[in-house]
Amino acid sequence: MNRFSTIDPRAYRMPLLFGLLLTTSALAERTEPMRRDGDYRPFPQPEPGYVTDHAQLLTPRQKERIERLLWQAESRTGTEIAVVTIGSIRDYPEVQARSIEAFARKLFDAYGIGNMPANDGVLLLVARHDRQARIELGAGYGRSMDATAHRIMDRTILPCFRKGDYAQGIDRGIEAILREFAGVRILNAWHVLAALLLALALGGIAFSMFKNGKGDDGAGIGGVYEAVCVGGRGVAILSV
Prior knowledge:
45% helix; alpha/beta; elongated; single chain; 12% strand; four-stranded mixed sheet; disordered N terminus
């Protein structure tokens, strides 16, 4: 059976446009690979960066996209997220882990995923031939976030895996993990264009209100920007 296991800123200001400019600048950024030097035996040797794809489930382009997103996320939020794919946990008998849960925990600790003192790292482990996957969380999250990890696995990752689309499952899973555990939302070019058009339209409304005297106390313009920005706090990263 094709089954996978699941796991247990009111004054006059322009924050919206400034935030969009920061977001679009992500196009010009390059990934600075996270490096783990040394010998990690008996565990899988980590590759430079955030993604170690020993099972070769990702194309170079897919891997580069995830690497860039994870680096941007950590540089903005401090949350380190790693992806590891392997053939089977049985390929690493010296780890002495009989379950995907035990293997993921030992691998998480061996790699030292997460930044102290928050201890808020996240590992997405996929064992292709075992048909198992695991989202391992740092102790900083506590038990309260286990249900969120369960939901991402059950509703986002596993449906793609069951169709044989591992790359899509990993990609969508990472976007969900970024959203839920790092407070990051991924924007594509159409999202940015729509937001820019909205900013221009609201800018015209704000200018008209100011010109007509409705913004003498600053409330008119401030009210417009507050309405736009109150739902947009957090971090947005442009998908590349």
